[in-house]
Design goal:
Radius of gyration: 21 Å
Strand content: under 5%
Structural class: mainly alpha
Number of strands: 0
Number of domains: 1
Length: 345
C-alpha cells in the first residue's frame, strides 16, 4: 500500500487519510465476517440448526441489523460511574485493534507501514487493550464489572508472555522482526532441499503455532478462557454496564482483534500473502495476495472459533496454571530447540 500510494504522488496527509480509512473499514468488515460465518453459521451447523435466517439471504444481514439496533439504544451511564473513563474504555480497546492492522501485510506493497520491528510493534500495541478493559471494570462502579476487569487484567498479562515467546522461534528462524521480511523468508526458504512451497514456518514451528493460538484465545477472552465475562458467575464482567454503541465497540474490538491475530498468525506461520510458484516481488501478488491472505485468515479463525465452541470454561486457577506451567515451559523448549537447529543447520 505504501509503494502504491507513493506512486500516485499524493500529499502526506492524503496518504495518511487513505491508510486510516482502509483500516477503519477493515475492522467492522472483519468483525462482521467472523461474527456471521463462525459465531452464527458455523456454530449453528455444528449444533444441527440453521442459525439466523430472516435478515437478508440466509441471514447474511443479521449482524448489520444487530448493529443498527445497538446504535438506536440509549447510551446509559451508571449513576456512580466515572463518566469520562467509562466512555473512553471501549475506544481504548478499539484503538488497540486499529493499531494491530498497521503492520499486517496483504501483498508485496500492500501494507500500511512496513516497520523493521513490525511484529514487536504488533505485540506491543495489543497490550493496550488491557488498559481499556481495566478502565471499563473500574469506571462502571459495579462489583461484577470490577471483578471481570481484574480477571481480564491478570489473564491478559499472563498470556502475553507465551504469546511473545511463541513468536521468538519464528523471529529466530526468519532472522528479522519485519512482517514482510518474515513472509519473504518463508517464500525464499526450503525444507529438506525442496523449495517449491518455500518453508512455511508451521512445518518447523508447529509447537509455536499451537502456543500462539492458545495465547490468542486467552487474549480474546473467548472460551475456554472467558472467565472475565463469565455470565453464570459475574453476569458479563467488565461489559455488564455497557449499552448501545459502546457495547458495540467492545464487540467490534473483540472480533476485529480476532481477525487481526488470525492475520498475524497467517503471516508468521503460513507464509502470509505469498503463493508457491511466484517470486515474492512479483507485482501480480498485489492482486492475488489479498485473496490468499483472506483464505488463510479464515482458516486460522476457524481453528480459533472451533476451540471456542468445543471446550468448557476453565476455572481461574486452571487458567493461570495452563499459562505458567504448560505454555511458557513449552515456549522455552521451542526457543531452545529452534536456536540449536538454527546454529547446526
Amino acid at each position: 500500500m505504501v509503494s502504491l500510494i507513493d506512486a500516485v504522488e499524493l500529499a502526506y496527509w492524503q496518504q495518511t487519510g487513505i491508510k486510516v480509512a482502509v483500516i477503519l473499514m477493515v475492522i467492522p468488515a472483519g468483525a462482521i465476517i467472523l461474527g456471521y460465518v463462525f459465531l452464527m453459521k458455523m456454530m449453528s451447523h455444528m449444533q444441527s440448526r440453521l442459525g439466523p435466517m430472516e435478515a437478508g439471504p440466509h441471514g447474511v444481514l443479521q449482524l448489520v441489523a444487530d448493529g443498527v439496533k445497538f446504535l438506536q439504544k440509549e447510551d446509559i451511564f451508571p449513576e456512580k460511574a466515572d463518566r469520562m473513563v467509562f466512555a473512553l474504555a471501549p475506544l481504548v480497546v478499539l484503538i488497540s485493534t486499529f493499531l494491530l492492522f498497521v503492520v499486517v501485510p496483504v501483498g508485496p506493497d500492500l501494507i500500511v507501514e512496513d516497520l523493521d520491528t513490525g511484529i514487536f510493534f504488533a505485540l506491543a500495541v495489543s497490550s493496550i487493550s488491557v488498559i481499556g478493559v481495566l478502565m471499563a471494570g473500574w469506571a462502571s462502579a459495579n462489583k461484577y464489572a470490577l471483578l471481570g476487569g481484574l480477571r481480564a487484567g491478570g489473564q491478559l498479562i499472563a498470556y502475553e508472555l507465551p504469546l511473545l515467546l511463541a513468536v521468538v522461534g519464528v523471529v529466530i528462524q526468519a532472522g528479522t522482526l519485519s512482517m514482510q521480511g518474515i513472509v519473504v523468508a518463508q517464500a525464499d526458504g526450503a525444507i529438506f532441499g525442496f523449495d517449491f512451497i518455500g518453508n512455511p514456518f508451521i512445518l518447523t514451528q508447529a509447537l509455536g503455532f499451537f502456543i500462539f493460538l492458545a495465547a490468542v484465545q486467552a487474549e480474546l477472552t473467548q472460551p475456554p478462557f472467558d472467565m472475565p465475562v463469565a455470565e453464570s458467575e459475574i453476569v458479563g464482567g467488565y461489559q455488564v454496564e455497557y449499552t448501545g454503541f459502546r457495547f458495540l465497540l467492545f464487540f467490534m474490538g473483540e472480533f476485529g482483534t480476532a481477525f487481526a491475530f488470525a492475520g498475524i498468525a497467517s503471516v508468521l506461520f503460513l507464509g502470509g500473502w505469498w503463493v508457491p510458484g511466484f517470486d515474492p516481488d512479483d507485482n501480480i501478488l498485489n492482486w492475488l495476495g489479498p485473496a490468499v491472505m483472506f483464505g488463510k485468515v479464515m482458516f486460522v479463525a476457524f481453528l480459533i472459533f472451533w476451540v471456542r465452541f468445543t471446550y468448557p470454561r476453565f476455572r481461574e486457577d486452571q487458567l493461570q496454571a495452563f499459562a505458567w506451567k504448560v505454555l511458557i515451559p513449552l515456549s522455552l523448549i521451542n526457543i531452545a530447540a529452534t536456536a540449536v537447529l538454527k546454529v547446526v543447520f
